[in-house]
Amino acid sequence: MYSALWQILPGPRWAKILQAVAIVIVVLSVSVEWIFPWAAETFIQPVTTVDQ
Amino acid sequence: MATRVTELASTFPSSAVRFITRSGKAIASGVRKTPGLTVRSVKRLPAAFSDGRRAVVASARNFSAKTVDRIIGVVGEVLMTAGVFVLLFLGWHVWYNDVVSGIAQNNAGSELSDKWDNVPLSVPEFDRHPGDSAGARLEPEPPITASPALNTRFATLIVPRFGETFERAISHGIDPKKVLNVRNSGLGHYPQSNELGEIGNFAIAGHRTTYGAPLGNIDQLRVGDRLYIETEAGWYVYRYRNLEYVWPKEVAVIKPVPQSNAAGADRLLTLTSCHPKLSSAERVIAYSVFETFVPRDRGAPAEVAAMKAAG
Known about the structure:
The structure holds two protein chains of two kinds.
Chain A: H1 2-8, H2 13-43
Chain B: E1 2-4, H1 5-11, E2 18-20, E3 26-29, E4 37-44, E5 56-62, H2 63-116, H3 132-138, E6 153-158, E7 167-172, H4 176-180, E8 187-189, E9 200-206, E10 226-230, E11 234-246, E12 267-275, E13 282-295, H5 302-310
Parallel strand pairs in B: 2-5, 7-8, 9-12
Antiparallel strand pairs in B: 1-4, 2-3, 4-5, 6-7, 6-10, 8-9, 10-11, 11-13, 12-13
């Protein structure tokens, strides 16, 4: 999967590295800002009150 | 690039071709005997055979076996990626979101109190007299702050023991998604408990870990520590009294007299949170007793003034 993605990236090796780093940053940013909060709200419900 | 064996047959007569792997192991001699083989990395080795036969070095595999290998490889990579994301999520949940939410909640509390800071800070009378009696003389009958609409911020909790920047907003209600888990609040007032300033029990809930952990250090309180609740009218000053551990269903801790049906006579502040950390198995309850009320026009209590100056 990752080797296929690597081959899809255009340009020389250094350009591929830059693109890969950019993709990782974008994926992490999207995860932190939207996916993780959604997952926490959906799957984790820490209860801290005495009436639940 | 893979080359089908059938294509090789037209180039090399079957009697003159041997297929060997890169390690030198012969896997086939004669194309017709090995239908379905896929040959990769074809390379002539003229010197490999002295009898004049032409040879090709090839890594050949059964087509269906290669497909299965690829599927297993992709599934493995997907699972490893999922595992990495689960670890990242846990790190985000337990650490990153906790820190970011804590900072945001402190900022939200400061912003709320900044709206009310319209008089110069000074040291009020009760700070010059150690002990409870001086404070009690100052303003024994505090005003009652009526709770606003649900999920609305209306006060801040200031606890010097929790750090010199600790000032978290208190909202009315304990809805996790609208109060306890959000970054501009974090502390919620139990609607079924008493109003602030009223005789009885003003009870607050907050996380002990994650989501800013506003009550993360609840077990660090020491008898006599002051806790301040700031509203537009001024500061309600409480002194910490004791800690209690209860089961999650022990709603009696937020009654006017905790664990009792008696009518309230004191003004209590009750903080509830989880115990142990990272678990909801029990609840930890911190009780404080009302000491005095400092009207805003008399200036902030010394501890609060020092925290605001430092912040």
